[in-house]
Amino acid sequence: MAGAGYYDIDDILAVQERVPCVLRVDLDGLGSAGSGGSSKVHRNSRWALPLWMADRLNEEDYVDMGVSPVFSKRANRMYVASPESIQLRAVSQHFYQFGLHLGDLVPDIPHVLRDMYMQRVQRIARIAQQGHNVESLDFVQSLDKTEANMLRLCQQAQGSIADWQQNKAYTLGRAPTIP
Amino acid sequence: MTITARQREGFTMPELEYRAQCERVAIVPLHRMERLELVTGTVGPFRPPQKTSVPLWLAVMLKRSSRCRIVPPEWLSYEHLRARCREEDQPDSLFTRLPTHYLEVAHILLANAEDDLVDSQGVRRLLQDLRETRQSKTRDGIKMLNPLQLQMDNLSAAEINEIRPLFARSFDMLRRLDALAATAEQTQHQSQFSEQPYSELDDSLGSSYLH
């Protein structure tokens, strides 16, 4: 599970997303962790666990990990149908990174994410070049963390040439060590 | 010195401008001067009215103290740029050929040696047109994005720098998604094979050889 994003705070936060799990053993004294009030948790009860915990417990056969509703069949169909009008931020703050972690669970994910990413990134590039307007406002507010980050970087890169042409960029100076 | 987020993503424009100052331009000196021994090489001697080729930074320095006249490069003329603009406007055309540092050199010359250019306002306008046309082309280019490679000939340094974060990140994302798709397919295949009895496995192998 550890990968390229080891030092990436957003990647860490992405595995905090909860996934539905079904317990396979009886657990004593852990009722407070689950939904029930009693101190014993019974087999086959449902738990929503953070992905980092669920993944490990799944390997050790304590729980059966299910597919998160974010990537259910129905949700995937929705992503394919209208990639630009999904409110990704509402679905999950770390949508893409979460998807990358779940890839081996749902084989559809890479294709769905890829199509969606391509569509949305083109729109992001357009917005970065032409600036915000009323129509794009909804879209900008629907971006997840990965995309919002991308939009910010693109806007900075676009702005840097304009700033420089109007002499608003900083100027390179001599290092203090050089007399 | 702190490194800003922008610097982490690539060059900043002042850095590119600095690099562009090493480009050579022709000047006509107005005073006699001996040759200059510089770290990067020798320039001069300066004998008016003979043309000499010097680095851009030196040309600007001499120009400021009115010791020379800068001969603008051939591509920085109204006619040449207008021809380029027309080429660029053709539908389905590729990027036209322009120097790597054309934006920077033009900027420096327009700021420091405007009187040496013919029709500097026209040149300025054409450069802006060129840039906008090329920008919309790069935007179309993102449709061709794939995890393997991307080719855009004749893109200048500043323009590459402008789209660097967008393309670098998209590449990264597509590459990760493709790797994921590959592993997902592999595990699927494996699980399929392990569930099949041997005779069926033979059949499927045989048929896959036939195809």
Question: How would you characterize the overall build of this protein?
Answer:
The complex is a heterodimer of chains A (179) and B (211). Chain A is mainly α and 179 residues long. Chain A is built from eight helices and five strands, in the order H-E-E-E-E-H-E-H-H-H-H-H-H. The termini of chain A are far apart. Chain B has 211 residues and is mainly alpha-helical. Chain B folds into two domains: 10-71, Ribosomal Protein L9, domain 1; 76-211, Methane Monooxygenase Hydroxylase, Chain G, domain 1, CATH 1.20.58.1020. Chain B has helices at residues 5-9, 13-20, 56-64, 78-89, 102-112, 120-141, 157-195, 198-210; strands at 24-29, 36-38, 41-43, 52-55, 68-71. In chain B, the strands form two sheets. In chain B, strands 4-1-5 form a three-stranded antiparallel sheet. A two-stranded antiparallel ribbon of chain B has the order 2-3. Chain B is elongated and about 85 Å long. Residues 195-211 of chain B have low confidence and may be disordered. The chains are: A mainly alpha (179), B mainly alpha (211).
Please outline the helices and strands.
The complex is a heterodimer of chains A (179) and B (211).
Chain A: H1 9-14, E1 18-23, E2 27-28, E3 40-41, E4 46-50, H2 51-59, E5 63-65, H3 73-81, H4 88-91, H5 95-102, H6 109-130, H7 134-141, H8 145-165
Antiparallel strand pairs in A: 1-4, 1-5, 2-3
Helix pairs in contact in A: 6-8
Chain B: H1 5-9, H2 13-20, E1 24-29, E2 36-38, E3 41-43, E4 52-55, H3 56-64, E5 68-71, H4 78-89, H5 102-112, H6 120-141, H7 157-195, H8 198-210
Antiparallel strand pairs in B: 1-4, 1-5, 2-3
